[in-house]
Amino acid sequence: MTTHHSFTFTRTDMMLFGVLALWSLIWKGMALWRAGRNNQPAWFVVMLVLNTAGILEICYLLFFQPKSSNR
């Protein structure tokens, strides 16, 4: 005996997904730009491949990029 479960996305679900996707895209874009400019290919690839809803990207921007006075 199998049970079929169906799930439908509500309008609210779709709105939340859209906001999360936009949030992630903005942070990913800023972090990838900075990693590329800082010549950090390992960070660039990791952030490009992993989707962490902006968490990894924010950590990189705050703690892991080289400190310089030319920002």
Question: Overview of this structure, please?
Answer:
By secondary structure, the protein is mainly alpha-helical. It has a domain at 32-65. 65% of the residues lie in helices and 0% in strands. The chain contains three helices and no strands.
Entry keywords:
71 residues, mainly alpha
Give the overall shape, derived from the CA principal axes. Answer: elongated
Which regions are unreliable across 5 or more consecutive residues at pLDDT < 50? none
* Secondary structure: helix percent: 55-70%
Percent in strands: under 5%
C-alpha termini separation: 63 Å
Structural classification: mainly alpha
The total count of strands amounts to: 0
The secondary-structure element order is HHH
- Tell me about the biggest sheet? none
Oligomer: single chain
Total count of helical runs of at least 4 residues: 3
Rg, Cα atoms, Å? 17 Å
- Overall pLDDT level: 89
